[in-house]
Amino acid sequence: MKILRIISVYFFSLSFFTSQVWAAKAEIKWDHPEKYHDINPGDNNRKSFQDHVFTSFEKHFAKLAMKLPADQILKIDVTDVDLAGDVNFGSISRIRIVTELFFPRMKFSYQLVNADKSIAESGEINLKDMNFMMSSNLRYRNDTFGYDKQMIEKWFYKEFKTKIDDNNNFTN
42's torsion region: left (phi>0), alpha (psi -120 to 50) or beta? Predict the structure, then answer.
């Protein structure tokens, strides 16, 4: 009987403190990627590099969407990408060099869709981070496309600050 009481207190307190489940989904659409400003692979294979870029950003948007209520879907329609840095054509090997001159940019539209298919929020976004190398807080320092991901994260937390679970919020 004592064990049953402990278990019931545990589940009551668990349901009391977790009033809403946090884990929305993200759906990403890449609209005419052949027209994007810069997804240049350098010496790598163009198709595999593009797939790597898209997969990396899809995972990043999905990770961020997990901060939103589970009954919502974050739909992103990407219309342009310009990765941080530029591919250097002046040497034997063509590699991406990241300097202050070539800041990350991304254009997309988004919709935050409720479970009943109504649109909670939407907008046309034109992100650019001209001071991307000035930040001392690069969360993705050792991650591929870290500057680009940090730019997306700043937008996300600014745009959805009222919808994000405070217990899951990053410190920026």
Answer: left
Report the alpha-carbon distance of residue 62 to residue 75 in Å, rounded. Answer: 10
Distances (CA, A) of 41 to 7, 28, 109, 161: 56, 21, 25, 35
Per-residue pLDDT, averaged over 137-162, amounts to 84
* β-sheet bridge partners, residue 27: 75
Domain count within the chain: 1
pLDDT value at position 15? 38
C-alpha span between 126 and 9 (Å, rounded): 49
Residue 25: in which H helix or E strand, if any? strand 25-30
Q: Which residue has the higher pLDDT, 39 or 58?
A: 58
Distance linking the first and last C-alpha atoms of the chain? 48
Q: Closest Cα partner for 72 from 6, 172, 165? A: 165
User: Considering the domain boundaries, does residue 168 fall inside one?
Assistant: no
Range of the domain at 44: 21-163
Residue 11: its pLDDT value, please? 39
Are 89 and 40 in contact by the 8 Å Cβ rule? The answer is no
pLDDT tens digit sequence for 50-63: 899 999 999 999 99
* Distance between CA atoms of residues 50 and 56, nearest Å: 10
DSSP letter, residue 170:
P
